[in-house]
Amino acid sequence: MPASDQGQLSGRYKLVPRVLIFLTCEDRLLLLKVKGKPQQNGWAGRYNGIGGHIERGEDVLGAAQRELGEETGLVASSLWLCGVITIDTGQEAGIGLYVLRGECPTGKLVSSEEGTAEWVAQEAVLDLPLVEDLPLLFPRLLAMREGDSPFSAHYRYDEAGRLLIEFFDGPRSLQEG
Fold it and tell me: Does the model's pTM come out above 0.90?
């Protein structure tokens, strides 16, 4: 099928593709403490996974490896898809977020202009100032093993700007948040 037949119609809802990577090694989880000033970046000073945009011509795994290298200096020998999240931002384009996991990467850990990469004990993670969805995402994510079926989720914001999260597991859904 030619590109012209792929259904790119104006006015359709679009998703900006992104990756979000979480690496574990033994009982530690790699997180990025986001740089910046809170008034300029609502995530500044908070902890998040490693990630960013998928560039034109990249596949999901390639983008994840590139972002991992750029933000931490590390290379993961194996990354696997844990979930796909659509995020309705209330704007013309939403976010299509591919969530991946990997274990015990190689390389020398470095920081980047995005933030400071830190290995954190898993039992201490929920005590950190986290990006708002992570307390709900972590239990599901850390319970997953390579080969498990990926989850699907949808994030949206209510009229007051509160994040609402819905996870889908096969034919059933569980409303959280």
Answer: no
